[in-house]
Amino acid sequence: MFFHSDHVKPEIVKDLLDKNEATLIDVRTKEEYDAIHIRGARLLTLEGMPENLSQYPDKTKTYIVYCQSGHRSGSAARLMRKAGYTNVLDLGGIYNWPYETDNAK
Fold this sequence. Notes:
Number of strands: 8
Radius of gyration: 12 Å
Number of domains: 1
CATH topology: Oxidized Rhodanese, domain 1
């Protein structure tokens, strides 16, 4: 099973990323992202999402969103689906991620 409650499991996300089959989007603030983020994640804050979704024109591609605890990622996933994105997965919070991260230098 891919999902645990409303969230996709970290091992599924890692597999999709390792195969380059998904884009990982961090919806936290720039400060949170700069402090620590999942390797390969792109920053698109939840607040900036409505105006900046045009950065991701392919609405059929797989996108995975995450935040700090899971609340903002759920909002981001709903917003993306409402905007017509058909394959949006919610990882939840970064604390669910047991793999490599990039930390502030």
